[in-house]
Design goal:
By secondary structure, the protein is mainly α. The protein has a single domain, classed as nmb1532 protein domain like (Four Helix Bundle (Hemerythrin (Met), subunit A), Up-down Bundle), CATH 1.20.120.520. Helix content is 78%, strand content 0%. The protein has six helices and no strands. Helix 1 (2-12) packs parallel to helix 3 (54-86), helix 3 (54-86) packs antiparallel against helix 4 (93-123) and helix 3 runs antiparallel to helix 6 (164-177). The longest helix is centred in the middle third of the chain and has 33 residues, at 54-86. It binds fe (ii) ion (2 copies). Residues 75, 100, 104, 146, 150 line the site of one fe (ii) ion (FE2).
Length: 186
Amino acid sequence: MKKQSERQRNAARGESSGTRPLHGPLDFIAEDHMREREVCALIDRIVASASMEQADLDHVLTFLEAVLPQHLADEEIDLFPLMLKRCAPEDEIEKVIDRLQSDHGHALADAPAIAAIIQGIGASPSKPSQSDCALLSDFAHHARRHLILENAVILPIARARLTKKDLRLMERHMLERRGLSSPLGE
Ligand SMILES: [Fe+2]
Ligand SMILES: [Fe+2]
C-alpha cells in the first residue's frame, strides 16, 4: 500500500512523463491519457502472461483506483460541461460527449473487477483464468477506443473553444480535487 500511495501522490502532482513541461488543465488531461495508454500496454502484458514486476502491477492498481476516478471527474464535471457551453452546433459535440459519458459509466463499473483480478496475480504465481483474461482484454480495448476519440476529437476542439477563464476555472477544480495548491505540472 505504501508504494501505491507514493505513486498516487506523484500522479496527483501531475508528474510529466518527462519529455516536456505541462501547461494547464488540457495538457494534464493529455498526460493522463498517456498514463492510461501505458496501463493498457501493461494489461496486454498480463494477458500475454509476460513476467511482471510487482511495481508494474501496483502501477496498474493505482491508476484504476486513484488516477482514473479523478480523470473521469475532470472530464465529466469540468471539461464536458464547458465544451457543451462553448461549442457551436456545427461542432456536433453533444453526441460524442453522450458516447464518452456512457463509456465512463462502463469503465467505472468494470474497474473494481479488473483491480481484483490484478490483485489476485500479486498473491499467486498462476496466470489469470481465460475468462479473466477476456475481461482484461475487453477493458483495455474499450479504453483505447475511448482515448482515440478524446485525443482526436475532444482535446483539439477544447483547445480551440475554451476560454482562458474556462481553463483557469477547470484548473482550480482539478487542483481542489487532488488537494493541491500549486499549478498543475509544477
Ligand atoms: Fe479521458
Ligand atoms: Fe473520458
